Amino acid sequence: MRKNIIITGEPKSGKSTLLKKLIADIPSGVGFVTNEMLGENGRVGFEIETYAKQKTILAHVDFETPNKVSKYFVNVNNLETILPSVSHFDNSNVLYLDEIGQRNGVRSHFLLIF
After folding, report:
1. What are phi and psi of 36, to 5 degrees?
2. Class of the 4-113 domain?
C-alpha cells in the first residue's frame, strides 16, 4: 500500500532541506525539489531541480509574466518543460514534489509518496 506524506510549514522552516535529506538515500526517487535563488538583497527566485539533475527557473522577481505569486513572477512554460521528466514513474518509485502549496498564504508544502 502506498503512503502519502505531506509536510507543511512556514517559509524558511526547512521543508526543502528535509526533503533533500530524505531523498538523498532513495535511489528510486522521481520528482523535483525547489531551490532558492539568492541575490545581493536576499531571495530573488526559485529554481526547479529534477531527480535527473535537470534545472529550470520557475519564478523570479525579474520575469515579466501574467502569473505572479507574492513578489515572484512564475514562468509556466519552464514548469511545463520539466513536468514530463517527472511524470513517468511506477510503483517501485518514490514520488516527491516540492512546493505544491500556496506561497502568498501562510504555508507551503512538499509531498512524498511511498
Report:
1. -75, 140
2. alpha beta
